[in-house]
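[job 4471] stage=fold_predict status=RUNNING
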Amino acid sequence: MPPGVYGMQDVWEREGRQQVNMEFLLPTGIYLNFPVACSDTISTIKKMVWKNARNEPLFSALSDPDAYVFTCINMTAEREELEDEQRRMRDVRLFLPILRLVAREGDRVEKLITTQISLLIGKGHHEFDSQKNHEVNEFRTKMRTFCEERAQVRQMLPWDQWMEYNFTCDLEPCSVVAQSGKSCSDKKIFVNVKFEGSEETFVLQQGPQDLPMFLKRNALRKKSTVFRSAKQEKPEDYTLQINGRWEFIYGKYPLCQFKYIFTCLHGGITPHLTMVHHSVIIKYQEEQGGLSNQVSRSRAQSKPPPLPLKRQNTSSLWSINEPFYIYLLQGSRVNADEGMKLVVQAGLFHGSELLCKVVTSNEVSVCSEPVWDQKLVFDISVSDLPRMSRLCIALYGVIEKTKKRPTKKKNKSSDCPLAWVNTMVFDYKDQLKTGEFSLSTWPSVPDDKGDLLNPMGTVEKNPNIDSTAGLLIRFPNIRPHPLYYPPIEKHLKLREIVDNKNYTEFFEDEKELLWKLREEVRQRYPESLPKLLLITKWNKHEDVAQMVGLLQKWPELPAIHALELLDYSFPDPHARSFTIRCLRKLRDDELFQYLLQLVQVLKYESYLDCDLTCFLLERALANKKIGHFLFWHLRSEMHVSSVSLRFGLILEAFCRGSIFHIKNLMKQNEALNKMKALNDFVKSGSQKATRIQTTEDMKVCIKQDTYMEALSDVVSPLNPSIVLCELCADKCKFMDSKMKPLWLMYKNKYDTLGIIFKNGDDLRQDMLTLQMIQLMDVLWKTEGLDLRMLPYGCLSTGNKTGLIEVVKNSDTIANIQRNNSNSAATAAFNKDALLNWLKSKNPGDKLDQAIEEFTLSCAGYCVATYVLGIGDRHSDNIMIRETGQLFHIDFGHFLGNFKSKFGINRERVPFILTYDFVHVIQEGRTNNSEKFERFRECCEQAYKILCRNGTLFVNLFALMKAAGLPELSSSKDIQYLKDSLALGKSEEEALKNFKVKFNEALRESWKTKVNWMMHTFAKDNR
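[job 4471] inference complete, writing structure tokens
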């Protein structure tokens, strides 16, 4: 074994040890001590315990092994029952090598599932239980019932609907298929088909518009002819599977609309399919049903939840006209300079709107437990508090500054932000809060605006109580009875009363005019609902009632407009319910397109139980692909304290409704943990040894049984229809960049594929950029424009960890230029390098198709990188496939955040359009203006389509502010996008501006070449 190989593995394997001396305490009082292998499963160890116990006293007093379970103290100092006996010893994370055997209590199936869910989501169920929070408990009960009921419904689905849940068809938009069909209507598709369990294959000739049923009928006819079989088989009993994938071709769609076949046609590749008998798929269906039924039986034996408490006598909130106030009592664990004075600022917000003037406490001296004991009165009546009123509090220090020279002016003070915290004024049951609340704060991060309050921040308390400042406040008992926010019936009744009033006053302000004409807005301009909500006076309950009434009859909006209402500026529950009502019309493929944003805006929800959470869970449990990516989008942020409770609870609920999915997800999680350990080893090893030696050590490590087992036969987190079968250790490597990403290659039955594992880089910005490129591709194809985009797979899986799809048969422009030039100095200026490379990869007639692929994809990426403001473009992050497809990688800078050096902007062109690109587009001829003009027209057409959908892009980026990306944290970061898409301008004006940018990119391309030359000098690309 290479030195240091075990340093990256579990603590029990340090110093090369593969065995650990374990101590066992039996229920009979007997003590055992013997070595176990770190790779042993708990089940194996239990058998060893029984074997050793046979020679000890009181063995006959022991029951069957299944009647017992091991317990331990884990690394977080908690007692853990090891229900999952397939776990290996190295993965248990013991505090000490001691296991205690105890009698198993309760339902084993339920305990096993609970344990697996805890391991999978990275948060133990005891952490939820320890909250002792009624809202958490009620949410868990409700969501578990909700998800398990949907799991039961799913098992009762008819065949076609069950297939749609498990194996959603991956389709191209109809428009691009129709456009493609015009050009190849006379062409035939050659499809390679074989039958499950047989190696015999048939090549069948089909029309591109033929349905899968027609292909199945032909395959059975061919089989019958070849094998001279008299047996009559029905095509309805078979489904076509894509070789090497859990992806099927079925339904009433033409063959060329399936993305796999469409891609094969464009690449000149023969599609390979397998005829799978339904009996094979039914076994898989029965396995799912068996697991769900086990859980159902277990659940039925548990006690029903307690009945909800009846509401006590209440007073009407709208009848209380006295001002709202709270008591600021004291602080705790405050850490500040002694020269400061401590002050608390508090404000009431509805979304981004400040409801009344901010109030400020008295100044007190710095100490760890400062006392204010002060009443803070707000300039708003209790009756006017909107349902989503949010109390935002900031703790800051005041530093007294005296000038060096004595003057008559007073000393100036400056504010030093220390901490902030938010809490809702009403609880999750609509009741106005009363009593004392201890609020653990979040550390303040100074912003450009200098705001102390953070209304956009979470309403969750900081879970790291011991290391953060705390504030104790008290909500008063304004009335002896609880005060509840009025239900919707009260709002509608009040609206009727208000509507009967005559409006005699004249509204001069634009806001008041818009409010007065709200009925006309509803009828004629329903998409202006966000504007109307923003000008609503949420601190006047009469206006709130009017708005709630309007929402009940507002026409549903298309998703492009409805998505905007999920921003934190629109917290009203009726507005958010209306939004979800609009989003329910989204098809699964459309919902999947926006899933990243929908997960992020969960952070804006004020309570655990909300329409958005239920909507996402409902759709995730009705479509396995959506469920897969919902899981990873949530799981990747479980390390973020402000969302770990909410996301953990949603993950727990999802797993309860997808019990059969847990096994695959746990396997993926285990593989990712091994990849991280491997990457840590590579990072440490590369500092001590040569690259060659570290690579060899890495391969030796991969070949260990535990690594090969964990990293093989894994459903790809990037694409759940692909299984990563056999890891090819000898083809694996690590890359040169700072974080030493792993390059892992897999061999499947019909193909080889690769993934890149990154540890240390935040991939969320890459995910967002690729999502936008994919959306552009869909919008273009919907209008019949296929620009051969390649939005490769990219997924964030944890704290600065994630996976990227390897695009096979491709190389960087830098490598192509370098390998076709004599020196680095001339490489960037060799305009023939790209065309010569394409000629070498596409001999004869194939070259025309390769140049076409290059032309279309180059047009697409020129427009995409300009609109998104992609920065840091050099010859090492622009790649070309051997088929001619050009694509960009590494999106560390966007929205116009271009790289500079020594204060000089290195990127001075709107997008990359160099003369060697033009040389390929013009097929190597300088006078081929017809080809270039077609390229220009493609760019202009693509740009116009994006401008027509500009609002959608702006809304999606705005919702991603919740992600906290460094280059997308405020509204001003989105201004670049508004400018590049020419929002508010006519199509003619927008196109005129784009033409200027296009000509600028072409004219100034020599600057790009100089930049590339400097990059080539700085980096050895060979």
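[job 4471] summary: The CA atoms of residues 616 and 630 lie 8 Å apart.
[job 4471] exit 0
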